[in-house]
Design brief:
The radius of gyration is 26 Å and the shape is elongated. Helix 3 packs parallel to helix 4. By secondary structure, the protein is an alpha+beta fold.
């Protein structure tokens, strides 16, 4: 889901407002999917994920939600290789869907295999455009401009990335995504950044408490709730005592839906919620243990779909980004 405006400001600071060179465009929240997409990215989707701030810092809006593989660190290495920087110098941001038009939920290695080339192409295109700006600035042809760390050189003259951005967001046109060499995919090019052990960009933030998590946010009048789930499929409530849970200070409501076999607690604070949940007294009718065949029947989604028992919606993920 999209992050709140305040959350976006906390994550991005003022960078987006003053970004010098942006490989991409930003879309309004109302025209983006609420849930991450399952579509593989196109080769030029990376133009929405990368921009450079006026101080020459490359900022990567991480296009992947992963489950602990730390693909963002690998993406940072790719961007660093394409831009002749250190991976630790690439600033990674986990955006909401209002900051980025394409995000994918991934597991295993698929996030890397499907996103590495678009990330590399975005950085390579940024390098090409910066090289062209450096050539114009130094009065030379782009072919005469050579790479160096954090910029370019022509003979003894040097120019840094920070000297090539002027504080204005620039949208890179689709035609800029032509043939461009990818340093990170060229087998004979030294892989000085890719594959080496690096410190997670967020380590210091996590250790010092600067990294923000969902539990760090509080809205005016916000309440906390939790449902007590049956311990296994088919279990039915046999007895319930909610009196002790209701007596916990800070509890707003304790409810029981007999028809749905659900019990829930709503409290003003997380600690009150934890205390109340610990005092919910419930006993369950335990059905006979399930054998393999019975379990397979319970999890056979196709069988339920054939009966029309599950609500579902077919969505076209290829809809244009500008359609409501």
């Amino acid at each position: 889901m999209s992050l709140s405006t305040n959350r976006r400001r906390l994550l991005l600071g003022a960078d987006l407002a003053v970004a010098g060179l942006s490989v991409g465009a930003y879309f309004s929240a109302g025209k983006l999917p609420v849930l991450p997409s399952s579509r593989d990215p196109a080769d030029d989707d990376g133009r929405y994920w990368l921009h450079m701030t006026p101080d020459g810092t490359a900022v990567l809006l991480n296009p992947v939600h992963d489950l602990g593989q730390d693909t963002p660190a690998s993406f940072a290495q790719i961007v660093a290789k394409e831009l002749n920087l250190k991976a630790e110098e690439i600033r990674l941001v986990m955006p909401g869907t209002s900051e980025i038009p394409y995000m994918r939920f991934t597991t295993g290695s698929h996030g890397m295999s499907s996103h590495a080339r678009p990330v590399a192409r975005a950085a390579a295109v940024m390098r090409k455009i910066l090289r062209r700006k450096a050539a114009d600035s130094l009065g030379a042809a782009p072919a005469e401009v050579y790479d160096m760390v954090d910029g370019f050189r022509i003979g003894t003259r040097e120019i840094r990335y920070a000297d090539l951005v002027d504080g204005k967001i620039r949208t890179i046109a689709a035609e800029d995504f032509g043939d461009v060499p990818l340093y990170s995919f060229f087998s004979r090019w030294p892989k000085n950044e890719i594959g080496r052990n690096t410190r997670d960009n967020r380590d210091i933030e996590i250790v010092t408490g600067a990294e923000l998590f969902v539990d760090d946010f509080s809205l005016s009048g916000m309440l906390y709730g939790r449902m007590l789930q049956p311990p296994f499929p088919g279990a039915r409530l046999r007895g319930i005592d909610l009196d002790e849970a209701r007596d916990v200070a800070g509890v707003v409501d304790v409810f029981h839906d007999a028809a749905e076999a659900m019990v829930g607690v709503v409290a003003a604070t997380p600690s009150a919620l934890e205390q109340a949940m610990a005092k919910v007294r419930v006993t369950w009718d335990e059905p006979h243990p399930l054998d393999d065949a019975g379990l397979a029947t319970l999890v056979d989604v196709d069988a339920f779909l054939l009966k029309g028992a599950l609500e579902h919606v077919i969505e076209d993920e290829e809809l244009a980004a500008d359609e409501d």
